[in-house]
Write a structure and sequence with these properties.
CATH superfamily of the largest domain: Type I PLP-dependent aspartate aminotransferase-like (Major domain)
Largest sheet: 7 strands, mixed
Number of strands: 11
Structural class: alpha/beta
Bound molecules: pyridoxal-5'-phosphate
CATH architecture of the largest domain: 3-Layer(aba) Sandwich
Helix content: 25-40%
Strand content: 5-15%
């Protein structure tokens, strides 16, 4: 048992116990459990919170990613086999969704300062088959969207976002927007349900309608099936929990920023490379606080040292997608990630990150004393 666990979901939800129980009771008593008034209200509220016109609740984040891409195919904006640029260092869901939609993920190395897809490497990864970019806001920091939108506009590419780690990160985006943004409300996310949940937000009413149909057996009218859909819907009980939690998201993210700022100013250990606070701090919601060590040995030693002090840590992610067995070989394998022999199959930056990153606790439930203790343990580490 860790003295300071990496993340304690019971502690995260405990302050809202009454509101959550009320939400559950109201749904049970309503007699309507899937795609009802709570789902509708949460879709409206969350889309508005994100600055988009439409929200479509789905079963989880992976489905949100997959269905926004599939809907783009159904609408003729993409076609099977089109190439989509994705960061090489992401959670595997991003890459799986591209494959699941029948598209080809083309991996692009990250910018080491932001951990996000490097806009300067997009051009080299493009071919005539490139039709879109799926940016990921890893660790809660927004990717360089102005550069990505500018690049996409110049080349006529669609832009999608995997925002599963960045609820509440804001960018002054003027009149710019992506074609669709996918969210996960997995319990550990900055805004987490008490089970699985996800959403697609978009300004495109056609795309929203098709995502909604695809998540409901491809049907709009009962027993009339326009598409070969799936079953991926947002439960009323999860929507009611999320509605109860949404008003607190900004204050949780503010607390995360406060903790991250303390780490960045008070950790002074020459072995530890701290993440950068963006020029506009609102562009980061610190889903996790990820630092970097010189090599794998020192990273593993730091993890052991923190564990011996009762401090929980995690590695996001120890194996990059292209190194997973799932992508090791076969027709669904490596060549899908590395089309046309253009890339040599090596992603040294993504691979080095997997060997050297370590995430320490940063959730809003940490007390000032706990943060002080973590900083002390980090500063005491020697190799
Ligand atoms: C959590 C996560 C997902 C998947 O969300 P699920 O709800 O677990 O399906 C996708 N992408 C990223 C970056 C994530 O962190």
């Amino acid at each position: 048992m860790m003295k300071i666990p990496f993340l304690d979901l019971k502690q995260v939800n405990a302050p809202y116990m009454d509101a959550l129980k009320d939400a559950a009771t109201a749904v049970v008593e309503s007699g309507w459990y899937i795609r009802g008034s709570y789902c509708e209200r949460f879709e409206k509220d969350f889309a508005a919170y994100c600055g988009y016109a439409y929200g479509v609740g789905v079963g989880n984040g992976l489905d949100a990613l997959t269905l926004m891409l599939r809907a783009s195919i159904e609408l003729g904006r993409l076609k099977p086999g089109d190439e989509i640029l994705v960061p090489a260092n992401t959670y595997i869901a991003t890459v799986l969704a591209v494959n699941a939609a029948g598209l080809v993920p083309v991996l692009v190395e990250p910018d080491e300062k932001t951990f996000n897809i490097d806009p300067n490497r997009l051009a080299a990864a493009c071919t005539p088959k490139t039709r879109g970019i799926l940016a990921v806001h890893l660790y809660g920091r927004l990717a360089d969207m102005p550069a990505i939108w500018a690049f996409a506009r110049a080349r006529g590419l669609l832009v999608f976002e995997d925002a599963a780690q960045s609820h509440g990160a804001f960018l002054d985006r003027a009149n710019l927007s992506s074609n669709a943004v996918a969210y996960s409300f997995y319990p550990t996310k900055n805004l987490g349900a008490l089970g699985d949940a996800g959403m697609v937000v978009t300004d495109d009413v056609e795309l929203a309608n098709v995502v909604r149909m695809l998540g409901n057996y491809g049907s709009e009218q009962k027993y009339v099936n326009r598409y070969r859909g799936v079953n991926s819907r947002l439960d009323e009980i999860q929507a009611a929990f999320l509605l109860a939690k949404l008003p607190h998201l900004d204050s949780w993210n503010a607390r995360r920023r406060e903790i991250a700022a303390r780490y960045c100013s008070e950790v002074k250990n020459p072995l530890i490379r701290l993440p950068e606070i963006p020029a506009d701090p609102m562009e980061h919601v610190w889903h996790v606080f990820t630092l970097r060590m010189p090599d794998r040995k020192t990273r593993d030693a730091l993890q052991k040292h923190l564990e011996s002090r009762g401090i929980g840590t995690l590695i996001f992610y120890p194996i990059p997608p292209h190194r997973q067995e799932a992508y090791a070989a076969g027709p669904d394998g490596r060549e899908f990630l590395l089309p046309a022999g253009r890339l040599d199959g090596k992603f040294p930056i993504a691979e080095n990150l997997a060997d050297t990153v370590l995430s320490v606790p940063v959730s809003q439930v940490l007390t000032d004393d706990e943060v002080t203790e973590i900083i002390g343990a980090l500063n005491e580490f020697v190799c």
